[in-house]
Each structure stands twice: as structure tokens, then as C-alpha cells.
Amino acid sequence: KQYLESMYRIDIREKIMCLEWDGKALKPYGTEDSEFQSKPDGTPWKKELKGLKTKKNSKGKTEKNITGWVGILGEGKAKRVKAGFSIFHNKRQVVGYPESWRPEQIFGEWGSNDLVNQRVTGELHLDDFEVSHTKDGIYWRFDEEREVGTLIESKIGDLIKQAKKTYKSQKPGSGAV
Description:
This protein is of the alpha+beta class. It has helices at residues 2-7, 9-13, 104-107, 115-119, 144-155, 157-163, and strands at 20-21, 24-25, 46-53, 65-72, 84-89, 92-95, 120-125.
């Protein structure tokens, strides 16, 4: 059920599709603002990614756009399964729940169970990248995967720093930082 909600989240969210399971409409898999850690002003620790572009390669091929969002999940074991990045290509999920993409620059070595691996989540739209022939992954060329991971890391440093902290509610007036 969660796999279908994840795979078709954009179609369900945009009401292009109504997918049912056991007679009940599925909800788009995702993260509500209430599931994110809150900043002292009450807004979620979440950042939109816009205008990110890879460098032109040695053959002068055009740069590739990266859009989406990254956020920090709040407390709760049930939220850990949402950690990592879901990757979309032309509104179709190619990587996501339960095997989200976790670039080493952000998440460290695979298998680590630290706070970053439990809390950092997001949706990345990589429409300019090539998809594998089986449509289940990005066909990374040359050093693109590392470049994308490094580029995202450079834009979300504040989120990574916050994710590493012991979580305390940061509702307005709580005094927590």
C-alpha cells in the first residue's frame, strides 16, 4: 500500500489518478508539514530547491536542472522510513520508498543509523537526467551522482546541522534552539 502511495504520489496529489486499496482511496505518500521539526518561529525545517544546475561537462553538454525540496523529520520511529530522497523524472518516481537515494556526501557511508539517516528526507526532480532502460533509476553519467550529491549538500548545510542535533520541540515561545 505504501509502495503504491509513494510511486503514484504526484498523480494522486494532483488528482490525475484515484487509486484505491480495499475500497478506500489512497493518499499521496509524502510528508505533512506537521511531521517536520519546527523552527523557533513555528515553520518547518524544510527548504525548496530551485535553480540548482550541474556544471557543463567536458563535451559542452548543457547543465541539468535539479528541483524539489529537503526537510528534517521530527521524532518518531514511524517517520524513519521516510528518510532519504525520492527521485522523480517527468513526474514519475524512479527511486523511492522503500529504497530511497542517500548520497554519501549527505548521509555518509551506506548503512549508518545516525540522526541524518533517520531525519533528512526530500523529493528531487531530475527531469534533465537520463533514466535507466528499466525506468527504476537515474543513469548517472561520468561523475553526475557525486556532483548532484555535493550540490544538494552545499544548499542544505543548515538542515544537515539541525538534523544532527538532539531534537527538542521548537514551538514559538518554547525557548528551545
